[in-house]
Amino acid sequence: MARYIRARTRVILCGLLTFVLLLPMAGCHEHSDRIVVGSKNFTEQLILGELFAQLIEARTHLPVERRFYLAGTFICQQAILAGRIDIYPEYTGTALTAVLKEPPGRDKQEVYQRVKQGYEKRFDLTIGPPLGFDDTFAMVIRGGDARRLQLKTLSQAAAYTPQWRAGFGYEFMERPDGYHGLAASYGLRFAEAPRIMDLGLLTRALKEGQVDLIAGNNTDGLIPALDFFVLEDDHHYFPPYEAVPVMRNTMLKVHPEVGAALGELAGTISDQDMRRLNYAVDGQHRDATVVVREFLRERKLLN
pTM higher than 0.90, yes or no? Predict the structure, then answer.
C-alpha cells in the first residue's frame, strides 16, 4: 500500500508540475503566426502529433511548433482551452467519459457525435473526423500464461487474478471507464493493490514478471513482438476510442486550411497501420519524424 501511495503521489506531482509550467504564458496565448501541436506522453501520441505537424507544414506552409509529452488528458485539455496549443490527438471514448463526464456508449458513430457536439458547445473546440483506428484499452497478459491456462477472455482470466499482480497507469485507475468499473464488471481481485506505473514501464514490468496483467492499448506494436496476449473484453465494457484531432475554433477561423489539411487523414490509418507505426518507434527504436514522413509518402500525402 505504501508503494501504491508513493507511486500515485509521484504521478500527481508530475502532472501538477507540467500544469504549473503551462501557466506562466497563459496571458500571451494567441499565436496567429504559427500552429502549436501538442500530444500526451506516450509513443502513439507522439506519432499522431508528428503526423499532424508534418501534414500542416506540407499543406499550409505555416510554421508548426511541437509541444509533445504534455502528460495526460487533463493537461492537454487545459492547454488547448488556455490557447497554449491549437491541436492535439484525442480518443472519443476518453473525450466522452474523462472530459465530458458522460456515460460511455457502445456505438462508434453515436459516441463521435456526442463528443463532437459536446466539445463544440462546452469548449468551443472542433473535433475532426476519425483517423480510422480504434485504440481501445487492452488487458494484456504474457502469451505463455495465456497458452498454459488456455485463456482467451477476461471472464476466464477472472478466476486466476486473485493470484496475479496488476500494473496500470494513473489515469486508468482514476477515469470512469477505467479500473474500478472494469473490476466490478468482471469481479476482478488481485493479490495486492494494482501498481501504478508510468505508461512506458508497463510492458517491461509484464515481460520481466513484476506484474501479470496490464492495461495496454489495442494498437500497441510491442504486443505481438513480446509474445503478449490481449484478453477479449467479452462483457464489451470499454467504449470505442477512435482517434480524432481536437482543434481550437479560434485558430480555425484564422487558418481554415489547417482543418482542411487534417481532414485528409480521415480514415487513412487502420489498427494494423497504427501497430506498425508504434512498433517502428518502440520496437525498432526508429526516429518518429522519419517513420511519420515515410508513412505520409506511402499514402501519397507527402512528396
Answer: no
Q: Is 257 or 72 the better-scoring residue by pLDDT? A: 257
192: CB partners within 8 A, 6+ apart: 165
**Closest alpha carbon to 93 in 74, 78, 110, 81:** 110
| Grid-cell match 507544414, residue found | 57
Residue type, 190: F
Cell of 40: 500526451
> Residue with C-alpha cell 526516429?
287
Which cell is 283 given? 520496437
**One domain for residues 13 and 103:** yes
Give the up-direction half-sphere exposure of residue 211: CA atoms within 13 A in the CB hemisphere.
25
Looking at residue 185, which CATH number applies to its domain? 3.40.190.120
Grade residue 273 by pLDDT with cuts at 50, 70 and 90: very high
Contact 76, 49 (CB under 8 A): no
Name the amino acid, one letter, at 248.
R
Q: Do 128 and 272 fall within a single domain?
A: yes
Instruction: Mark whether 189 and 213 lie in a shared domain.
Output: yes
